[in-house]
Amino acid sequence: MGETRLVIGRELITEPSHTIPASKGTVSVLLDNIRSAWNVGSIFRSADGFGLAHAYLCGITPTPENDAVRKTSLGAEDSVPWSYHKDAVKLAKGLKREGWRILALEEDRKALRLEDFSGSTQRSVLILGNEVTGVDPELLKFCDEILYIPMQGDKKSFNVATAFGIAAYTLRDIGK
Question: Is residue 25 in some structural domain?
Answer without folding.
Answer: yes
